[in-house]
Amino acid sequence: MIVTLSKQVDGIIYFWVMYRDGRTIQMYHGVTEQWKLDQDVSDSIEERYTFRRQAKRRLKELIAKKQAEGYRQDDIYGMQPGRKEREKFRRRTSWLAYLLLGLGLFQFVTPFTILPFVVLGIGITLMFLAFISKNQFPMWLRVICFVDYFLMHVSFRQEQYIPHLFPVLSIGTGLLLWFHLRKTRQQMKVEQ
Q1: Per residue in 56-106, pLDDT tens?
Q2: Which residues are within 8 A (CB) of 133 and not within 5 positions of it... i.e. 6 or more apart?
Q3: What DSSP string describes 80-137?
Q4: What is the rounded CA–CA span in Å between residue 102 and residue 87?
């Protein structure tokens, strides 16, 4: 992850470039017009940590510290941090929402049943969605995905006792996912 922070003082732009590669953070400090100053401002620092999460936490602390000093984070690549991953996650989740809606409606409309292994596969996908979507979905939606996984697993084992459980869960979860994705997409358009 590369982060660029800069601030302008008296026509000179001071900047920090921070790069995290696994457990190592490399930082470079400098100015854009060195010849205007009579002293050398450039500096290079490297910090190593035992664990990746320590390096990630330290990088966040450094960014917050520099922003408190008046630096602003530059978007040098034309994308906000993590935006590409969020878009990929949103695209895959919308396909899952459409699949859930389609399978639920298919089972309500037609006399055919869906194979129990398909139900279990979708349930496991919902379980992974509940755990992977930590920064993407609110807690209530993650809990609903996990409860739906549990109930789909029960319906996989006890299908003859609860015949309409999968279609109801499928349509309900698909609609909740779709409405949430639509709401967040509208918020992103307003921010841009």
Answers
A1: 899 889 889 988 988 888 766 555 556 677 777 788 888 888 888 888 888
A2: 89, 93, 141, 142, 145
A3: -TTHHHHHHHHHHHHHHHHHHHHHHHHHHHSS----HHHHHHHHHHHHHHHHH-TTTS
A4: 22
- What are the tokens at 179? 């409405």
- Give the single-character DSSP code of 36: G
35 DSSP 8-state letter? G
For tokens 């496991």, the residue is 124
Strands ordered across the beta sheet of 2-9: 43-48, 24-31, 12-21, 2-9, 72-74
pTM across the whole model: 0.52
